[in-house]
Amino acid sequence: MTRKRGLRPVLVAVAVLAAISIARLAFPTGLTAQYFFGSQFSGAPALTTRDSTFSGLQMSRRWGFRPPEAFSAQWSGSLFVNRAGLYTFTLRADDGSQLYVDDRPIVVERGQGPGERTGEIRLEAGAHRVLLQYFQVGGAYHFAWLWKRDDGTLEPVRAWALSPRARGAAAVFTIRTLDVIWLLALAEVIALGLRLVYTPWYWATRRAELGDGPHAKYQLRPVDPGRAMAMLALFATLAAAHTWPLVTSPAYLSRNDNGDTMLNEWTIAWIAHQLPRDPVHLFDANIFHPEKHTLAYSEPLIVQGVLAAPMIWLGASPVLAYNIVLLAGLALTGWTMALVVTRWTGDEYAGIAAGMIVAFNAHTLTRLPHLQAQHVEFLPLALLSLDRFLRDPRWSSAFWVAIWFVLQSLTSLYLLVMTGIVLVVATLARPEAWLGPPFRTLAPKLAAVAAVAVVALTPMLIPYWQLHASGFERSLDEVAYFSAQARDYWTTPSRLHGWLGTSARGVNSLFPGAAALVLAVLAFSGREAKLRDPRVRVAIAFGIVGVALSFGPIVPGYPFLYTIFPPLQVVRAASRFGYLGIVAVAILAGFGLATLRRRLRERRGLQRVTTIAFTVLIVLESAVAPILYEPFSGIPPVYDANALESAGAVAELPFPPVDVISRNASYILGSTRTFRPLVNGYSGFIPPSYYANHVRLAGFPDAQAMDALRSLGVTHVIVHLPGLTPDQASALPLTSGLQHLESDGGIAIYRVLP
Asked: Which DSSP string corresponds to 502-539?
């Protein structure tokens, strides 16, 4: 098949798809939607449009993913029923919702808070008037509209059944027919497009251009060990400079103003504590007692915990260990990227530039409270091993791809998903390496890589899978709220851009830097066809995919991927996929600087000045130091009380409500002194038992709270006296079920008597 002949059926399929799309415009579906400020459906609508889906995600879209604290929405039009029967309508809403069919109230429930409301009505075949309403008072919001006929299964109300005005059976049949044909045409376009892109004869020609076997044109350049160690020292120095003044007192300075920092400090301390004692139950952490697998409520941080363990065993505080591991992550991430790009380009300065961009950027330097964000050191090594494997498919190279993938996955579930996506996209972006005859050689090795990774990660993934099966999951509404916006890609905390006024005010900081972008563009300048270099193609491919995924469910196809690809369901903050765009820019910038330096090799002085100028700009554009840290004076001495050494379960009171659950962060950090089971907890997920425990313990030290403590197996309580109400404080010494043991600095320990 020639290129021209292969393009013709694609164009025909695209034309059919376009014709059906135009014809479909004559049959609008959905209901007329009105969105209001406030929860009373009052005043002029802030937005009038047409919606064919009804969910928190859809409402987020309509409000630009930044809805007001309180709002309301209503949808009106016609609902077509193709068969008579008893119809059950269900509304799942947080906060309130109402449904009227043919002006009859089916669901009228304006209660606040999450819940499911159901109503029934017998309907004849044909069109029926419908009015659907939703209101949001504040906080989280969720909405779903479902129906079923007779004893059928509840499912979302389909778009084809809805219209702004009543329509007959013939129009509905036409709509459904056009929709089916449109989907078939789309599938044909995709199939023909893939066939055209991955045409064996074309890539066989590319293989001939690149050379048989290991591509001579793209051989890896060795890096001198001494120079490699010098690079490591450079990146350690840069890590200290970018986080200044952290290195001056890592045991005293902290980001403990953020609950996530204390969560991660507790995590690495728990791993250091549990691994040598009972590694089989590593995920049965001491928080949220008596729940199981509570380490899986957030990131595993296995690698970070192993790095911190020797320091903690020698007596270092979790804060000191955290800070050292944080600095190490920044240095190692920059170093490995520098080594990889140096090997790819043969230019050490290009490698250093790429390493600085990937390690010290707007994203990583605004996420110092998240220890997983700074440890991306295995991703460049996985890309290097994959490159070697696709050039020369040996078992040893395949093995190293699996090793680096597993290690990166053990740092973070987010990075497991992101690294997996990068490796898949990187492979697909290099069809000359595997399409046609080479596939028979690569396929078994790729299958082995996947098998090794699955086996190695299974012990870690089982607790997460069990939690998912028990109902712990992220909704698309939640993912949409934590997705990126366009202005995030121009947002940076850089002091230079703040002074120049060239930074946007997005929620996430994803700007890779102007110098990095200029260098990335230079990678394609001149006569050199950089797209011929497979590493450049790979960076472009996974960079585009990462940026697209960062916008979350607003991107067509994301909800479908979310459904069929379970690992994607662990990603709440889809915006973090944007970091893959920064990684891609870093690689391209390395190639760009190498290209520029090659062109200036006859003009050494200009080459030196240009290299220094770009390096300095990269450093300045990411500089946020000095950073304001919170002093850490140590865990309160009361947590070292001998009484806690032999305690059963412990509860810290007053028990924080869910909306301020982050108050527990300091409690779980304090628990690292003994690691006794703790009813309190703070993490990415909140188990249902926490809500129940808060209700039961809210009146402490009343009889209900004392009974609840005993039923939970609590033998000791740690009471933060300033947090008690006057009535609670006066009742505390009179409670017969408590024995005071000791107090220190407003914190008292009591034994719970049987």
From this structure: -----SS-----HHHHHHHHHTT-SS--GGGSHHHHHH
Q: What is the dihedral of CA 617, 623, 626, 631, to 10 degrees?
A: -160
- Give the tokens for residue 639: 């947590």
Helix (H, G, I), strand (E, B) or coil at 179: helix
Tell me the three-class secondary structure of 121-139, residue by residue.
EEECCEEEEEEEEEEECCC
Q: What is the pLDDT of residues 597-632, one digit of tens each?
A: 988 988 988 999 999 999 999 999 999 999 999 999
Question: In angstroms, what CA-CA distances link 621 with 357, 362, 494, 522, 609?
Answer: 10, 9, 6, 18, 18
Per-residue H/E/C for 558-570: HHHHHHHCHHHHH
Strand pairing class (253-254; 630-631): antiparallel
Eight-class DSSP state of 552: G
- The β-bridge relationship of strands 714-720 and 649-653 is parallel
Give the chain's radius of gyration (CA, Å).
30
Q: What is the pTM of this model?
A: 0.83
CA–CA separation, 384 and 536 (whole Å)? 13
Q: Which residues of 302-316 are buried (b: 16+ CB within 10 A; e: fewer)?
A: bbbbebbbebbeeeb
Q: Distance between CA atoms of 675 and 672, rounded to whole angstroms?
A: 5
Q: Is 507 exposed, middle or buried (0-12, 13-18, 19+ CB in 10 A)?
A: middle
pLDDT in tens, 131-179: 999 988 877 678 889 999 988 888 889 888 999 999 888 888 888 888 8
